[in-house]
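Much of the work behind modern protein science is quiet bookkeeping, done one molecule at a time. Below is the pair of lines this work produces for a single protein:

***
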Amino acid sequence: MPINWTKEVEKYKTSLIKDLQGLVQIPSVLDEENATPEAPLGEHVKEALDWMIALGDKDGFETKITGNLAGHIEMGDGEEILGVLCHVDVVPAGEGWTYPPFEGRVENERLYARGAIDDKGPTIAAYYAMKIVHDLGIPFTKRVRMIIGTDEESDWRCVEHYFKHEEMPALGFAPDADFPIIHAEKGLIDFNLNVARSKVDEYAPKIELQSFNSGERYNMVPDRAVAVLTTHLDQTYLLQEYDEYLKENELAGDYYIVSGNLTIELHGKSAHAMEPDHGKNAGLFLLTFLNRFDLDVNAKAFCAFASERLYKDSRGHLLHIAGSDDISGDLTVNTGKIRYSKEDAYFGLNVRYPVTYDMDAAIKKITPQLKEKDIAIQILSDAKPHHVDGDDPFIQTLLKVYEEQTNQKGELLAIGGGTYARSLEKGVAFGALFPGKEDVAHQKDEYIDIDDLLKATAIYAQAIFEIACKK
């Protein structure tokens, strides 16, 4: 007789919500300043990991903590492992919440908390899916292992350490993105374009750029830029031009004198680097404005490069690295950090490239072109693209489960972001945000709909049953 997974989940509703509240009440934000060997990413991050492991111990699963950075909860039998890759770290709560961010208040059929949708809610849903299948006493053909990370929001040190010491699952899913299925994730490369400051002015410039600062993270469109200028002209014209420039581009800004130098600020609009066009890059807007004027020779070269090769070109055409494919779409370029001072000058780029794109060849091609402009490429990190063929039986099984549980047509998605799924050769992101629902991850008043939490649990339970159990 077929199992009604929705009814099975309903039996656990009260305890599921209670356990999610227990987990979100731990403020598991990265805290390296107070790190210890027992808690290398901070006391509360380790507390959240310990909390999940204790839950697994209570329910009779096999558990293990690896290097105090990650752990796992396992059930079943067999040589192969079905991995369920989750994380319990969260981004800072920030200001302006209507509900306490670390309480887990339930109101309007929603549970509000930092981590409710990213990723503590989906983690508890996946855990209860394991528990439900386990409690039904169904024989297994595979082991099912929930792998719990603690550094997903930062540098992934958790999974890097974990997979150096533990088994690699043959296949798996990360409940840390969108339904139906994300089977392709673009490559992610961060690199600096270091600009040499070696030119000498042949005449006295009217404006000297002393410093420029914009952006703190490669994966965010910077919403603020600051330029410090020494001016040898009447500043009235420059500032009138600046006011007009701000109006034309629907931007905000300010200017003031500090220690005899003119400081100009520009305020743009932040956005995730997955789609730079959703923001307004304050740094590139300000450099493009400064490029209008008679600058010192080094500053002129710096501003001109920004204006001619980076400004309003999120697809890399002006850098000659544009590319696209039918699986994952366009390459995107985000200039996330810009620095200019007496010590150094660079543009910090985050590029997300399609799964069929050869980034190594692209870097090799543009290196000599940039060298002609006294610019050197410094690669900081490069996570290669990830793609699982849509015809794979594993993918088809997950699609079948999604369609049966939702009565909606499943489809394959590609993203510019990265999930733990790319840690596995055959890994995909699988929920827990349903199509058409508001994505409130990293935002104030983050929440998960209770109905969606239960529905996701049913989907994960059936998926585990279909993939890892004897029928």
